[in-house]
């Protein structure tokens, strides 16, 4: 049962959409985990009794807050801008299935089978036409080597298209409009023991990003991270239709909060500051390519939306999260595609719960 929390002076209404004790998360904020028509969103909750598929995926309807479990599987699902959700589930003694779920129609289909012990690194990513699925893999720890593997769902093939000793946390993301590139996070200087124990996630060189063309795996370097900018935070998102990426960098020097640590960068140019005023951390973009949503990594964690074009921003509300080690104690806000709702995590009640803020049209209009 949903709980109405408050009506704020800016016209925003706050709702706690969940209240049971199951551990839950709104997944991640880089793009909306919503149906294309913005009628519902999906979150995840843990059910240890459902082993080996202990993660339950639950849809929630905006406004009525009615929920429905639509899948059970493993953590690490993915999403496309057109409302296609995908996740993996174990069929014991047989395989792992990759499931494609249309959040608008509820249609679900198994689209690929992996070995039962398949263990990709981080979240997988799906091309906008649902043909390709990309993710990171560990090749070995002695010597240290990681890779990006590409599944061609049309041809039912798997191929490693790139290897590198420093892509231990690749954070792969398909460009959401044409799907010609996958963005990869490059944790330069990461260190591991031969048994896989992580010693250092990133070295003094700092993390950066590069692009892989699909399907040939050609590399294009981006001018982010030292020496071009401070080290990236590891939170980034494609700007739809622009072949540019929005990301946050360490808020220092020329990128201090008052100047702006939210930047955009493309394959052919230097980074540009998009917006400032906050210590931006987690980053996401709207499917229309016009707006961003971020959390301010200080204080009560203000949840900020803004225009990528004008740089104007505004605070929707505060998340009041503890900002601990667990991802579900981070705000991770995202706007629904129709720009009417902001979904976020908050553990203000003592347990992480899914929260939603209504977004008055006046707030969006103030950004243009």
Chart the SSEs and their pairings:
Elements: E1 3-7, E2 13-16, E3 24-25, E4 40-46, E5 55-61, E6 67-73, E7 78-79, E8 84-91, E9 95-102, E10 108-114, E11 121-126, E12 132-141, E13 144-152, E14 157-164, E15 173-174, E16 181-187, E17 191-192, E18 198-200, E19 207-213, E20 219-221, E21 232-239, E22 244-249, E23 262-266, E24 272-275, E25 280-285, E26 291-296, E27 302-307, E28 313-318, E29 334-335, E30 341-346, E31 353-358, H1 361-365
Antiparallel strand pairs: 1-2, 2-31, 3-4, 4-5, 5-6, 7-8, 8-9, 9-10, 11-12, 12-13, 13-14, 15-16, 16-19, 17-18, 19-20, 21-22, 22-23, 23-24, 25-26, 26-27, 27-28, 29-30, 30-31
Textual characterization of the structure:
The protein has 368 residues and is mostly beta strands. The protein has one domain: Methylamine Dehydrogenase, Chain H (7 Propeller), CATH 2.130.10. It has one helix and 31 strands. It has one helix spanning 361-365; strands spanning 3-7, 13-16, 24-25, 40-46, 55-61, 67-73, 78-79, 84-91, 95-102, 108-114, 121-126, 132-141, 144-152, 157-164, 173-174, 181-187, 191-192, 198-200, 207-213, 219-221, 232-239, 244-249, 262-266, 272-275, 280-285, 291-296, 302-307, 313-318, 334-335, 341-346, 353-358. A five-stranded antiparallel sheet has the order 1-2-31-30-29, with no helix packed on it. The chain has a four-stranded antiparallel sheet with strand order 3-4-5-6, with no helix packed on it. The chain starts with a strand and ends with a helix. 47% of the residues are buried. The model has no long low-confidence stretch (mean pLDDT 95).
């Amino acid at each position: 049962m949903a709980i109405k929390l408050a009506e704020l002076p800016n016209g925003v209404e706050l709702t706690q959409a969940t209240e049971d004790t199951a551990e839950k998360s709104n997944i991640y904020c880089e793009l909306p985990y919503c149906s294309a028509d913005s009628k519902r969103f999906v979150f995840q909750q843990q059910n240890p009794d459902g082993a080996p598929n202990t993660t339950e995926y639950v849809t929630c309807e905006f406004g009525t807050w009615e929920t429905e479990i639509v899948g059970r599987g493993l953590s690490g699902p993915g999403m496309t801008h057109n409302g296609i959700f995908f996740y993996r589930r174990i069929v014991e003694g047989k395989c792992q299935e990759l499931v494609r779920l249309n959040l608008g129609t509820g249609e679900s289909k198994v689209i690929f089978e992996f070995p039962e012990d398949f263990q990709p690194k981080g979240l997988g990513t799906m091309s906008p036409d649902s043909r390709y699925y990309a993710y990171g893999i560990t090749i070995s720890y002695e010597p240290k080597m990681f890779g990006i593997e590409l599944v061609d769902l049309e041809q039912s093939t798997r191929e490693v298209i790139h290897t590198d000793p420093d892509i231990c946390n690749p954070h792969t993301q398909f460009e959401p409009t044409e799907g010609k590139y996958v963005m990869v996070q490059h944790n330069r200087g990461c260190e591991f023991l031969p048994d896989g124990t992580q010693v250092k996630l990133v070295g003094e060189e700092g993390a950066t990003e590069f692009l892989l063309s699909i399907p040939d795996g050609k590399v294009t370097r981006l001018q982010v991270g030292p020496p071009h900018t401070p080290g990236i935070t590891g939170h980034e998102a494609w700007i739809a239709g622009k072949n540019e990426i929005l990301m946050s960098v360490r808020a220092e020097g020329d990128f201090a909060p008052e100047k702006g640590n939210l930047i955009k960068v493309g394959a052919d140019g230097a980074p540009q500051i998009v917006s400032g005023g906050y210590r931006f951390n987690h980053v996401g973009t709207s499917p229309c390519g016009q707006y961003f949503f971020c959390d301010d990594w200080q204080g009560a964690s203000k949840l900020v939306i803004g225009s990528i074009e004008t740089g104007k921003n505004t605070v929707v509300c505060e998340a009041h999260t503890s900002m601990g080690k667990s991802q579900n104690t981070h705000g991770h806000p995202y706007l629904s595609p129709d720009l009417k709702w902001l979904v976020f995590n908050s553990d203000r009640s003592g347990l992480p719960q899914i929260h939603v803020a209504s977004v008055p049209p006046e707030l969006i209009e103030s950004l243009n």
